[in-house]
Amino acid sequence: MTTIIDGKALAKKINAQTKELVAQLKEKQNIIPGIAVVIAGDDAASLIYTRNKHNKAIKLGINSVLKKFPADVSQDELLAEIEKLNNDDTIDAILVQQPLPPQLDPEVITNAILPAKDVDGLNPLNLGKLFANQHGNYPVACTPRGIMRMLAEYSIDLQGKNAVIAGRSILVGKPLLALLNNANATVTMAGRSTSDLSALTKTADILIVATGVPNLIKATDVKSGAVVIDVGINRLSDGKLTGDVDFAAVKTKAQAITPVPGGVGPMTIATLMEQTVDLAQWRHHG
């Protein structure tokens, strides 16, 4: 019997814990965690994601500030706003919603965020600590952190297992490679230039797919008993949401699989909120 990994239920549990912790921090230590969500442009999906994050933070008792800029905002203007937020003592976490308009350099914008407020874990200092498997407190990209939490919650053993990641993005693939490697899995990463993706995915005990290609992975691409994590979320012409994995077909072979929607997506936002509170505590207590 295939286990359906219920990200929605797990996210609900994490959010309840976060809400309780926020209430305790306010009551006992007068700490109110704060997040600033910055968006440039009017990309419809980005606006929805940004609003969802903002509203979720408020529901959990987190101070949330939404900073919206027009699509033609200059890089200097956005950098000036980030500098203000870096110096704002009421803000513990800064998130810049991607994708950014073409005149903005994502690398420059990301690097401008103070590492201690980098809730996406994308500043080179935080990424370097992750890849070096350093001890201590530092943020990790929210989607990979959420995926690792799901695997742990469902008691999926990673030690010595073959893990294959399809997708090399800095938001998902690369941080996940480090996290899985740090958990003693044997990790392979595939990208657009991978010549025979199917041959590679069929070796995976743990398969994570983050390509942005709807239904890319079929049942024939997965070995029996694999754990399949689908990070993709794609809207089809009929309006339905689908992942990068053919869920109906692959679930007949997988030991465990995440659905779309209701899998990785809710976990990303729950982890973002959890990490915002972490940043607040680290900033106040070291």
Protein topology:
Layout: E1 3-4, H1 7-29, E2 34-40, H2 44-59, E3 63-69, H3 75-86, E4 93-96, H4 106-112, H5 124-131, H6 142-153, E5 162-166, H7 173-182, E6 186-190, H8 197-201, E7 206-209, E8 227-230, E9 234-235, E10 241-242, H9 247-250, E11 256-257, H10 264-285
Parallel strand pairs: 1-11, 2-3, 2-4, 5-6, 5-7, 7-8, 8-11
Antiparallel strand pairs: 9-10
Helix pairs in contact: 1-10, 6-7, 6-10
Please identify the top-level CATH class of the largest domain: Alpha Beta
Number of helices: 10
Instruction: Compute the number of structural domains.
Output: 2
The biggest sheet, with number of strands, parallel, antiparallel or mixed sense and barrel status, is: 6 strands, parallel
Relevant CATH superfamily of the largest domain: NAD(P)-binding Rossmann-like Domain
The protein's oligomeric status is single chain
Which sequence of strands runs across the widest sheet?
1-11-8-7-5-6
Return Rg in Å: 19 Å
Q: Report the order of strands and helices.
A: EHEHEHEHHHEHEHEEEEHEH
Low-confidence stretches: none
- Helical content, roughly? 40-55%
The N- and C-terminal alpha carbons lie at a distance of 45 Å
CATH architecture of the largest domain: 3-Layer(aba) Sandwich
Gross morphology is globular
Question: What is the CATH T-level topology of the largest domain?
Answer: Rossmann fold
Give the number of DSSP strands.
Answer: 11
Structural class label? alpha/beta
Strand content: 15-25%
Summarize model confidence as the mean pLDDT.
Answer: 97
